[in-house]
Design a protein that fits this description.
This protein has helices at 9-32, 39-71, 122-127, 134-146, 149-160, 166-185, 188-196, 272-295, and strands spanning 87-98, 101-112, 117-119, 200-213, 219-232, 253-261. By secondary structure, it is of the alpha+beta class. The strands form 2 sheets. A 3-stranded antiparallel beta sheet has the order 1-2-3, with helices on both faces. Helix 1 runs antiparallel to helix 2 (39-71) and helix 4 (134-146) packs across helix 5 (149-160). It has 3 domains: 9-131, no CATH class; 136-182, no CATH class; 188-236 and 247-295, no CATH class.
Length: 297
């Protein structure tokens, strides 16, 4: 048994063209009914919402079309382990969060009787084994870099019409940070750029205890340590009294790393401070090791 599609490829294209024509026709109505001097504003507002809806529908329909095409191939119906033909079970939906908001998709669930291996054949092929697309992660990371998770949530809704909770945004940011760390440590060009940059090497390390709120609403503290490695040309000599006001040359290159300690690693009681410092020592060592790596030591 195979999955049955509601629309053929030609039907999907005809449907999308019909929706596009309807949206363009509504543009005419918006402009005809606009108040004096407000035509561009009304049309801009209309397309901001309806244009995104149409693009989201195009993305959903084209992805669903590709899924049906892949699932119709005989190779897709084979078990990846024993290469025997699998059995169709049922259709199951999955929602993927994209730069155009949530996209619900249907795909086939199959099972291999000999090796008891259940799987969704198209997940790895199409990229549905992940919940968030790269573009969505890019937008989330940029918003998180400008403020708190709650502020990022509001910005994503206002600017991109992407609706996510602040806790979900935090999870996406943490996941993206791990992926970025892996890419940075395996990118020889970035390390080479740091080593070949002009200037003297500077290393700055600082930390703080952050009061935050977890998913169940309870407050908790986490220890954050950050290290910054930079290269900068030497500035003019200055007396200690001038250090706070003198202008130094801009860094030619910078690289920052951070480490966060979970609240469970912070000791209670009178010796909390000393215990905390001892527990943070490995984090500082990791930061210094990362800085040494970028310097080529």
């Amino acid at each position: 048994m195979t999955s049955r599609s509601k629309y053929s490829s030609n039907d999907i294209h005809a449907l999308l063209h019909e929706q596009l024509e309807a949206m363009l026709s509504e543009c005419e109505n918006v402009m005809d009914n606009a108040a004096y001097g407000q035509t561009i504003n009304n049309l801009d507002s209309f397309l901001l919402v309806e244009g995104r809806k149409f693009i989201r529908e195009v993305l959903r329909q084209k992805l669903q079309e590709r899924i049906r095409h892949i699932e119709a191939e005989e190779e897709t119906k084979q078990c990846p382990k024993c290469k025997k033909k699998t059995t169709y079970r049922y259709q199951r939906s999955k929602t993927v969060v994209t730069a155009h908001d949530h996209i619900p998709l249907e795909r086939t669930y199959r099972c291999c009787s000999p090796c008891k291996h259940p799987f969704f054949p198209v997940d790895a092929t199409v990229g549905l084994d992940k919940t968030y697309t790269h573009e969505l992660k890019r937008l989330v990371s940029r918003c998180v870099g400008l403020g708190s998770y709650r502020l990022a949530k509001e910005n994503l809704e206002e600017l991109c019409q992407i609706h996510l909770s602040h806790t979900t945004i935090g999870k996406i940011a943490a996941e993206t940070a791990g992926e970025m760390e892996v890419r940075l440590h395996h990118n020889p060009n970035i390390r080479k750029d740091f080593q070949e940059a002009d200037g003297e090497t500077e290393v700055l390390i600082d930390g703080t205890s952050i009061n935050t709120r977890n998913e169940d609403g309870k407050q908790e503290y986490r220890e954050a340590k950050i290290a910054l490695a930079a290269k900068r040309e030497c500035g003019d000599s200055a007396a200690p009294s001038e250090w706070a006001t003198r202008e130094l040359p801009e860094p030619t290159v910078t690289y920052a790393v951070a480490a966060i300690e979970d609240r469970r690693q912070i000791a209670d009681g009178r010796r909390q401070q000393s215990r905390r410092l001892r527990r943070l020592y490995p984090a500082v060592c990791r930061l210094l090791s990362a800085v040494s790596y970028w310097q080529g030591e």
